[in-house]
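Render this sequence as a predicted structure.
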Amino acid sequence: MTNGRWILLTFATIMTAAGVSAAIGYAIDPYGLWRDPTGRKLTVYDFERKAKFLLSRRYVPANFDGLIVGSSCSANWNVPMLAGAHIYNESLPGGTVAEEQIVVNQALLKGHYRLVVVVLVPTMTSRHEINEGLDTTKNVEALGSFHVYDNEVASALHAWHIRFHKSDAAPDGQVELPYRKNLKLSIPPDFFQIDPVALEDFRNMVQSLRSRGATIVYVVPPIYEPIFQLNKQSFETYLYSVRQLLPTAPVIDLNGPEYTALRNDPDNYIDTVHLEPQGAATVSALLQKLVSNAIATGK
């Protein structure tokens, strides 16, 4: 085989493989970009940042009129309905406000949301880095990319009833947290630092949602009680500081005394801030009542 023919054959093979890959991506359409996503049940198994960014462009606006905005501490909250709104959980593992703002902005391009639950946790405002190239994500990645292959394989395994980490991903954005149980983790002092850039992003995101007609309800996630008591003053100072700088809205504080039993039960926690499925289910049930009451009373 001549060099020229070898190069031509190699090029043709690559182009064929790319074409087949793009065709499969278009046919499966895991992010609802290429076909009408209304009524579809699309899930996120991995690479949550990229997946939720792309899902938020068409799938989320077509099927939901409410959002949960938070980090990994709320990523496994499964709350399909709140105060009459169909809820999509936009929480990102390890997410910052800068990243959540990017994802929420995609959802706002075509969507209208009646209710947005905003989770107040220090990790959201401690920095403003953007990870995994979230700020450069393109639609074409839904036709061929590592993350789309990963989610396609995971979806196939799930269809074949083969379990793997994050098997319990749901079409409302909730994902399983594959963390190891460790209730001895301590909270470092810089956990409570407030990055001014992140705080400005936070304020802008909430104001943007509110200006588009969304009712905002803040939720403070429950911290494992022994750790909460050791850092109670820091948590309270953080909450007070952030509330003074963000737009006013009702606050549901799950670190309040009435929720001590929830926080005291080690079976509810993976670690100090992340909930086991049992704990997440308890919080989800509480929110069904608490969010409606917060909206009705305004506090």
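Summary. The chain has ten helices and six strands. Residues 76 and 277 are 7 Å apart (CA to CA).
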